[in-house]
């Protein structure tokens, strides 16, 4: 059998492998197929090209000259000046072929390191038309990227009847060459002052090569770079590539519920420009405005037009109730927020735990408080049940009569209340205030419905959604039945399905009110994670609604 040398190339190895393929009775078709593939001449050429590229990979070759194209033209002209031999005719044919001329042109471009497109000079009459500081000329070389126009009534800007037009191109709109409110006057010398957006889009799509735009800037240069201080928490998911309503999908900014968005401008009533806080990409993108998004929720847009949102209209009506309006929190789309850090003279923030089925949040709460009762405490609940001998009023419970409990309920003193074994139980607002007055952090676990009552500037609640780790797949059976299966104990498939559905339902209806999700693997790790969150709440700043700070 032939042996390859150490310096053998890929094409030699391929040739040797091909020669060794011998069809047998069991794999005849496979061997014939492989031999045919390996015998392809184009594959051998590719292997040789690969070897040459590997040879030059570490050598960093540099061009010898920068004018290979002109040199080829000189040689071709010299060859044509007299009689030619067969070899000279072949050389002339090669030098004048389009493919070789293109290769030599690329060679010269790389050698000169000049990769910028060459734009034609401006027309002579442009200088006469320009008014300094009032008109700017933007020139671009068109590629496959879409150029789209949008409009808004200019009356809001200048009091005239004209329109503010702007281009939402990924390369123009996001790089700062064109801004919202800029007025597009001409495209390649053609006036567009009285044209509709679709007519301008058609004119742009028909333009080839370089495009020259004459634009009237809408804002001063110094205002353009002024950093916006408006921050919004997104309360829904947005995928621009699935949104047919956006004027330019490529210029859209995708985000998920809970993301903090820095809104750069709200000049356009339909599409805002925004950046995601913490994103390495500093360019702003398009997001639907609050008004536009709420109009969609109100049913003013064709069903299916905005398919990028998680809940269908039917789902939203089921969770929020028939007849709800966009002003209701269930229809909130953005919430303006700001950074907030607790000051030494302020009462601690309220910590609210909500949990899905199987989370056992009361046990988690009691465990954290027992570790440090001087810093954390619970709001002592009210009850109508009789006091037991070892209990003290105001310690385990506030013991009240049923008549008093009913009066307090009618006066909305409870954030939530309910009945258990014919006795009434409830947690009052005053009980929370009593804990905070002692400069302790109050930790309450409530049903998710109570969040709307607690989300006030007084309490500034930090909401933690505790979800148990639900076993899945093959691991589910062993984790659900083994004694060491964490907090799950012995669970049936039906139990696990109910736990999963409970978490999904809470997330869909109340997830936009949650600040942190805690996945509970077991009591020990969950307790440690909760303790870390509480410690950071006292030391670090967090995003909270603006209304909680600007009172």
Give structural notes.
Residues 313-332 are annotated as: Disordered. This is Membrane protein, palmitoylated 3a (MAGUK p55 subfamily member 3). Residues 227-297 form the SH3 domain. With 551 residues, the protein is an alpha+beta fold. It is 34% helix and 19% strand. The chain has 19 helices and 21 strands. α1 packs antiparallel against α3 and α4 (68-80) packs antiparallel against α5. The longest helix has 18 residues, at 493-510. Residues 152-170, 300-329 and 474-488 have low confidence and may be disordered.
How would you briefly describe this protein structure?
With 551 residues, the chain is α+β, with helices and mostly antiparallel strands.
Number of domains: 6
Helix content: 25-40%
> What's the total helix number?
19
CATH homologous superfamily name of the largest domain? P-loop containing nucleotide triphosphate hydrolases
Percent of residues in β-strands: 15-25%
Cα radius of gyration in angstroms? 36 Å
Task: Fill in the keyword field for this structure.
551 residues; alpha+beta; Pdz3 Domain; 6 domains; six-stranded antiparallel β-sheet; 21 strands
Which helices and strands appear, and what pairs or packs with what?
Layout: H1 10-20, H2 28-38, H3 41-57, H4 68-80, H5 86-95, H6 98-112, H7 126-129, E1 136-141, E2 149-153, H8 155-158, E3 163-167, E4 183-187, E5 190-191, H9 197-206, E6 210-216, H10 221-224, E7 230-234, E8 260-265, E9 271-276, E10 285-288, H11 290-297, H12 313-320, E11 334-340, E12 351-355, H13 361-371, E13 376-377, E14 382-383, E15 398-399, H14 402-410, E16 414-420, E17 423-428, H15 429-437, E18 441-445, H16 451-454, E19 462-468, H17 475-481, H18 493-510, E20 516-520, H19 523-539, E21 542-545
Parallel strand pairs: 12-18, 12-19, 13-18, 14-15, 19-20
Antiparallel strand pairs: 1-6, 2-3, 4-5, 4-6, 7-8, 7-11, 8-9, 9-10, 11-21, 14-17, 16-17
